[in-house]
Write a structure and sequence with these properties.
This is Molybdopterin-dependent oxidoreductase. Keywords: Membrane, Transmembrane, Transmembrane helix. The chain crosses the membrane at residues 20-40, 52-69, 81-107, 113-134, 155-171. With 360 residues, this protein is α+β, with helices and mostly antiparallel strands. The chain has two domains: 3-186, no CATH class; 194-356, Sulfite Oxidase, Chain A, domain 2. The chain is 45% helix and 18% strand. The chain has ten helices and 13 strands. It has helices spanning 3-13, 17-38, 47-76, 83-106, 118-139, 146-149, 152-179, 266-273, 296-301, 350-356; strands spanning 112-113, 116-117, 192-193, 221-226, 232-235, 243-251, 255-265, 281-286, 291-295, 303-308, 311-312, 322-324, 337-343. Strands 3, 6, 7, 10, 11 and 12 form a six-stranded mixed β-sheet that branches. A five-stranded mixed β-sheet has the order 5-4-13-8-9. Strands 1-2 form a two-stranded antiparallel ribbon. Helix 2 (17-38) crosses helix 3 (47-76), helix 2 (17-38) packs antiparallel against helix 5 and helix 3 (47-76) packs antiparallel against helix 4. The longest helix has 30 residues, at 47-76. The termini are far apart. The relative contact order is 0.11. The structure holds ligand MTE and molybdenum atom. The site of the ligand Nc1nc2c(c(=O)[nH]1)N[C@H]1C(S)=C(S)[C@@H](COP(=O)(O)O)O[C@H]1N2 has 20 residues, from loops. Molybdenum atom (MO) binds next to loops.
Length: 360
């Protein structure tokens, strides 16, 4: 097809500019929301969050193609540059960065860029896109017009676009399976396997910046307190580790590992201190202040591990004691635990605390 023909076809099929722009805005918002939400999903029943995120990502590619085609001269023609063009270009770069890393990740590329996994870079682009898109929108704001959104044809076209995106994703998955890329043995979360047993089998990961000095086991003690009849301080030698549990750790940076963890069952610990009747939650606190809270029934079943794959937990993996919370994402598996606090309510502030605990 000649360039001219292509342009005519493009001009004919492209939706109204405001429809494209506002759809992009809404879809990016939904992507940021579903991407962040996906961080909290660790059980297979939550798969729709991930599928939605992927399908909407493909839909954005199509809409962004229309958009970039439409504005190409404003960007390529230097005489038409305005101060706001810089913001527009940066917004496009962040969007293309998020899309390309997302697609390479889905296609099975499993590489690190400096310290970060490809998936973490994707998250970085996505988060950078939020302020850029808001700035871009404030410089180039055009209110949505009813006429651009009305009509059956618009609705049908849009539905067609979404269906086409889902089909593209299916074909992509088929290609992964046929080509046996790293894309085929991943979890529903997109995470890729790290095989083997023990400390060396999987990476040491920090959620943001937690990096405490190695802990001296002889100076360390675990305190169990809060809504309990008899709080205790347990030295390492007094832990009596006798529980064992196979559990899957799934990090939001895109890898998972199945390990045999051993240590103490939190339920045994709670019996030992005699948790009170109105207790509903259990908070696990790290020496760094990092913390996470589980509902008490779930907590009973969790393990505070001293060992992984038969080896003493290394410092990097949270030794002397770390939380093993099956079904939860990795960032909730608190490392370097030195306090267990029985409570009668959840802990919304934990979200903020996990982000800043590494800075002092
Ligand atoms: N105290 C503390 N616990 C933490 C973290 C952290 O930064 N600080 N990182 C979490 C994250 S994001 C993951 S994926 C797991 C990683 O455990 P690993 O380093 O043993 O692989 O620990 C979690 N526990
Ligand atoms: Mo993680």
């Amino acid at each position: 097809m000649s360039g001219k023909r292509l342009r005519t076809v493009f001009a004919r099929v492209q939706p109204a500019p405001r429809l494209v722009d506002w759809s992009l805005f809404v879809l990016v918002g939904l992507e940021v929301a579903s991407g962040l939400l996906s961080f909290t999903v660790g059980r297979p029943s939550g798969w729709p969050v991930f599928e939605f995120h992927r399908i909407a990502g493909v839909t954005i590619v199509a809409l962004l193609a229309f958009k970039l085609y439409r504005v190409r001269r404003r960007i390529l023609d230097r005489d038409r540059w305005m101060p706001s063009t810089a913001v527009s270009v940066l917004t496009a770069v962040a969007a293309l960065g998020a899309l390309s890393t997302g697609f390479l990740w889905v296609a099975g590329l499993d590489v690190r860029i400096a310290y970060w996994t490809l998936l973490s870079v994707h998250v970085g682009f996505g988060l950078a896109l939020v302020p850029l898109l808001i700035a871009h929108l404030s410089t180039r704001f055009r209110p949505p017009r009813r006429v651009d959104f009305e009509g059956r044809r618009t609705a049908v076209r849009f539905a067609g676009l979404v269906v086409a995106s889902a089909v593209v994703l299916r074909l992509q998955r088929l290609a992964n399976a046929v080509l046996e890329t790293g894309g085929s043995d991943r979890r529903f979360t997109g995470s890729q396997p790290r095989e083997g047993a023990g400390n060396a089998a999987f990476p040491v990961t920090s959620w943001v910046a937690d990096d405490p000095d190695p802990i001296d086991r002889d100076a360390w003690a675990l305190s169990v307190d809060g809504l309990v009849a008899s709080p205790i301080d347990l030295e390492f030698g007094a832990l009596e580790p006798d529980a064992e549990r196979e559990a899957l750790l799934d990090c939001t940076s895109g890898w998972y590992t199945v390990q045999r963890w051993s240590g103490i069952r939190v339920g045994d610990l709670l019996e030992r201190v005699d948790a009170e009747a109105d207790a509903t939650h259990v908070r696990f606190v790290s020496v760094t202040g990092y913390r996470w809270t589980l509902p008490i029934e779930e907590a009973r079943d969790a393990v505070l591990a001293t060992h992984v794959g038969g080896e003493r937990l290394s410092h990097g993996h949270g030794g002397p004691l770390r939380l093993v919370a099956p079904g939860r994402r990795g960032f909730q598996w608190v490392k370097w635990v030195d306090r267990v606090e029985v409570r009668d309510r959840p802990d919304p502030a934990q979200w903020l605390v996990t982000l800043i605990s590494g800075f002092d």
